[in-house]
Design goal:
alpha+beta; 2,3-Dihydroxybiphenyl 1,2-Dioxygenase, domain 1; 2 domains; five-stranded mixed beta sheet; four-stranded mixed beta sheet; about 25% helix
């Protein structure tokens, strides 16, 4: 029998996937319920200290810890993780999710067409930012080409109104037109497109 050995050198070895992220909170029930609602997820396991949530075939995508002595987050932009993002299959799924959440009084604070994605940003009850997005290109290569061609002039994107995008979608406007990122309005800079 041949002995298994780890090779000394290999081609690039990257992770197979992003598995999960972990949040620490002072109010597990509130945070758990928000993620269950937003992601239409389910609890894989919960006890008084930990809750594991999934929404697909992974055993968990989010873990929530309710640990003693946790301090509230300081307001404002801070060093560290800015947001997590979840990609939907198509624009219809993203717009449906927007409407479903709006009906539950969960509304985005920032809606922007980055170019590669059409994105809606939300805040969970603890203030963590969550991006719900849809890819605007069929392949990663096309998205990368767009970034190389257009990000020097605007690496942020263009704001949009969700209800206006829904109206255009329901009117049957071609998806290519709905996904196309407009140019910056005259006199505006990419930084004018930021919302926090």
């Amino acid at each position: 029998m041949e002995e298994a050995k780890v090779q000394e050198t290999r081609a690039q070895v990257s992770p197979a996937k992003l598995a999960h992220f972990v949040l620490v909170t002072r109010d597990m029930a509130r945070l758990r319920d928000w993620y269950l609602t937003v992601l239409e997820g389910r609890v894989a396991y919960q006890d008084p200290l930990l809750c594991f949530i999934t929404y697909d075939d992974e055993h968990h995508r989010i873990a929530i810890g309710a640990l003693p002595g946790v301090q509230e987050r300081a307001p404002g932009m801070r060093v560290g993780l800015h947001h997590t993002a979840f990609t939907y299959r198509d624009l219809g799924d993203l717009l449906y999710t927007y409407r479903r959440l709006k009906n539950r009084a969960i509304e985005p604070f920032w809606t922007i067409n980055h170019g590669p994605t059409t994105s809606m940003y939300y805040r969970d009850p603890d203030g963590n930012r969550v991006e719900l997005q849809v890819d605007n290109f069929a392949t990663a290569e096309e998205a990368s080409d767009f970034m190389r061609a257009h990000y020097a002039e605007n690496p942020i994107g263009i704001l949009f109104e969700p209800e206006e995008l829904i109206a255009r979608y329901e009117a049957g406007e071609p998806l290519e037109a709905l996904r196309r990122r407009p140019l910056l309005p005259p006199g505006r800079t990419p930084l004018d497109m930021l919302r926090d």
